[in-house]
């Protein structure tokens, strides 16, 4: 197999695995500052990841139900443009604390000068 094709396949496989693990981070980030309904969460994720992470509504609903069950996300009903009320999802105080701890333990590492230098191209 030619190296560029192998590189593309390996990168795709790695990114697929990476993205599955990132969905929770991006949902929590979407809800950090304001409640959002599913279409807004989906658009936020697509925009902020520059289209590299696209998620189906079904995946978002499944994740949100799980987070609601463990009390890190809740929702409030608000009037939609037309039709039935919409569920606007928001982080609970427990969800906010969980997200804050996760970021401190896992994301802020990437702000360390040593890690920044390791990530720079040769």
Brief account:
This protein has helices at residues 3-31, 38-48, 57-69, 93-107, 113-119, and strands at residues 73-78, 86-91.
Describe the structure.
- With 122 residues, the protein is mostly helical.
- Helix content is 61%, strand content 10%.
- It has five helices and two strands; from the N terminus they run αααββαα.
- The protein has helices spanning 3-31, 38-48, 57-69, 93-107, 113-119, and strands at 73-78, 86-91.
- It has a two-stranded antiparallel sheet with strand order 1-2.
- β1 (73-78) and β2 (86-91) form a beta hairpin.
- The longest helix is centred in the first third of the chain and has 29 residues, at 3-31.
- The protein starts with a helix and ends with a helix.
- The mean pLDDT is 91.
Please give the largest β-sheet.
2 strands, antiparallel
Ranges where pLDDT stays below 50 over 5 or more residues in a row are: none
Alpha-carbon distance between the two ends: 26 Å
Lateral arrangement of strands in the main beta sheet: 1-2
Radius of gyration: 17 Å
Q: Number of helical segments?
A: 5
Order of helices and strands: HHHEEHH
C-alpha geometry: globular
- Helix-and-strand structural type: mainly alpha
| Overall mean pLDDT | 91
Number of strands: 2
Classify the helix fraction into a percent range. Answer: 55-70%
**Percentage of residues in strands:** 5-15%
């Amino acid at each position: 197999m030619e190296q560029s094709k192998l590189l593309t396949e390996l990168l795709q496989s790695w990114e697929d695995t990476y993205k599955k693990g990132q969905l929770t981070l991006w949902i929590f980030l979407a809800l950090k500052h304001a409640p959002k309904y599913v279409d807004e969460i989906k658009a936020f994720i697509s925009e902020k990841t520059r289209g590299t992470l696209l998620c189906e509504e079904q995946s978002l609903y499944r994740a949100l139900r799980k987070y609601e069950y463990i009390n890190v996300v809740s929702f409030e009903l608000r009037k939609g443009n037309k039709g039935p009320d919409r569920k606007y999802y928001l982080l609970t105080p427990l969800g906010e604390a969980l997200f804050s701890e996760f970021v401190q333990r896992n994301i802020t590492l990437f702000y360390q000068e040593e890690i920044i230098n390791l990530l720079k191209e040769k």
